[in-house]
Amino acid sequence: MLDILLSAIIVIVIVMPLVNKHVEENLEIFIFVVGLLAVTVSNVWNWELLKITLEHPIMISLTVLIMGILFKVFNKQIIILINVVVKNIGIKWTLALSTFVLGLVSSVTTAIIAALILSEVATVIHMNRHEKIKFIVYACFAIGIGAVLTPVGEPLGTIILSKLSGSPHNAGFLFMIDLLWIYILSSNIFLGILSYKIVKKDRIFEEHMIRNNADTTNKEIVHRFLKVYAFVAGLILLGDGLKPLAYKTVVYLGGTELYWINMLSAVLDNATMAAIEIVPEMSTVTLKYLIVSLIISGGIMIPGNIPNIICASKLKITSKEWVKVGFPLGMAMLVFYFLFIKFIY
After folding, report:
1. DSSP 111-130
2. 213 with 124: CB under 8 angstroms?
3. How far apart are CA 63 and CA 194, in angstroms?
4. What is the enclosing helix (H) or strand (E) of 191?
5. Which of the two residues, 323 and 159, has the higher pLDDT score?
6. What are the extents of the domains in the chain?
């Protein structure tokens, strides 16, 4: 009975934001409530989980708050900088390099900082809504994928290295770079090319093409902080609540099965899934299947990654708008890299 209920919760998390406008507009609260439900159904409430749920979102949320304030204070300087970049290299190259560079540096600056910079770039450069959504989704894919290279970028990298630190892998700081560099670099180049092609014709630069972002209110900044806190707390609860189902299923699967099962990281925290699935005895090939599927699937839907959550909140991108771009892109990348791992590398 428990497995059925938890499976139903997964379906609800995937479907409801796509079919219900009220849920879509209040996605953060929805995830938090569903997380509470999952933990209650699984009966895994304890003081440690409560402490983690309250404490872990603080750093992410405060970063969003502080950076939001800094971007507001230094808005004029940001506008000038983006003016200079766009004027010298054009919008097409600005979008392409933003995606590529932020995707790679996210492993050093953290995915959160990269996402906040991305949302600021997308806000001030003049694009129509469809172009803006495509840029955000492409770049968030790149950030989510690139951030795994070091334990600094996001929790997923930390979890993986901690679980593989002993024999036989003896994973150190550079382990993920050695294991995944070809996947990270090639996907970031690909996503940069897609970003270059968003704007069909490079527009002649004009001053009005850069929008002033100084009208962001303090209330909006605080509201974004609270929404991110609720979202992250909800993802923690959801991940713990679904662990009983995961322990009965995914831990017994091989690399190819895990590759497709891990599409669930489109709606679940990929660090939690990695914590459940990874064991030191896994082969290098199995680890590639597992990690590549996690980092790609995280871009398919808004809950899949912290960068998605931050940028969707800032740009007011709905779940339907995100999935319309993210799902076909994610599926194409998943199929390509599955075949790449299986037959080439």
Report:
1. HHHHHHHHHHHHHHB---HH
2. yes
3. 29
4. helix 175-196
5. 323
6. 2-343
